[in-house]
Amino acid sequence: MNRKDGRTIIIPMDHGITVGPIAGLEDMAKAVDSVVKGGADAVLLHKGMVGGGHRGYGRDVGLIIHLSGSSSKAPDPNAKRLVTSVEQAVKMGADAVSIHINVGAETEADMMQDLGMVAEEADEWGMPLLAMMYPRGHDIKDPYDVEVVKLAARIGVELGADIIKTNYTGDVASFKEVVRGCGKVPVVIAGGEKAKDIKGTLQTVKDSLDAGGSGVAMGRNVFQAEDPSKMVAAVNAVIHGGKSIDDAMKLLK
Q1: More exposed terminus of the chain, fewer Cβ within 10 Å: N or C?
Q2: The CATH number of the domain where 103 resides is what?
Q3: Would you call 165 a catalytic residue per the annotation?
Q4: Please, are residues 240 and 233 in contact by the beta-carbon 8 Å criterion?
Q5: Residue 1 lies in a domain
């Protein structure tokens, strides 16, 4: 978190376990260097990719080690399992850890139990915990509906997360409800699928801030951008610089 404004730009790069070496993440050191140059506050990686050089280039950047995973080929891709520990993250020099919970999935109970136990372990080590709280499952008709997003986010807070990552609900008024339900725990929005409308993506970022959000955890819309450094710089201009969308768009040219 930026100490001046309490906001953050996190670049998740944990996609390799889910879908393999997708475009933009073939060379992890290059990918990290690119987003750091643009002004990212932290990158989020699985433990095996830390050796790829998250601090080998340019300025320092925060390291978040992701603790859970599942592949897109699993019988139930929504069933996330722990794949490492807080203690291992401490040994690797992490600044924070993260865990993924799918609220509404068939294995929701197991994931919630993992979150509660990881939160306790993180507290013991003095390690901040980011909880990715997503409404996903057979009975989730709309994963952006404010009621299910509020529930997912609040569960993360109730079980001890220090930062919540969740879906943006589509407008300022409804997302204010999500943020309000999390009290003093900061909420960042997920970047989601790669979008064609860059200006619209930046507007979503700004709207989330206007609703009281604390930044973004944006992956594919950054590392799959034509120029990831410039894309992060544009996001940075909105989140940390307080710039207009038009001014931020100029940085992409």
Answers
A1: C
A2: 3.20.20.70
A3: yes
A4: no
A5: no
Gap between the Cα atoms of 86 and 97, Å rounded? 7
Which residue type sits at 173?
Answer: A
The dihedral region occupied by 170, where left means phi > 0, alpha psi between -120 and 50, and beta the remainder, is left
**Mean pLDDT over all residues of the chain?**
95
* Residue-wise pLDDT tens digits, 39-75: 999 999 999 998 755 555 567 899 999 999 999 999 9
**Residue 206 in domain:** yes
- Look at residue 99 and tell me whether its pLDDT is greater than 90: yes
The question of whether 144 is a catalytic residue gets the answer no
pLDDT digits (tens, 9 = 90+) for 107-124: 999 999 999 999 999 999
Fill in the DSSP letter of residue 100.
Answer: E
Q: Which of 80, 150, 165, 206 is catalytic?
A: 165
Q: How many domains does the chain have?
A: 1
What is the pTM (predicted TM-score) of this model?
A: 0.95
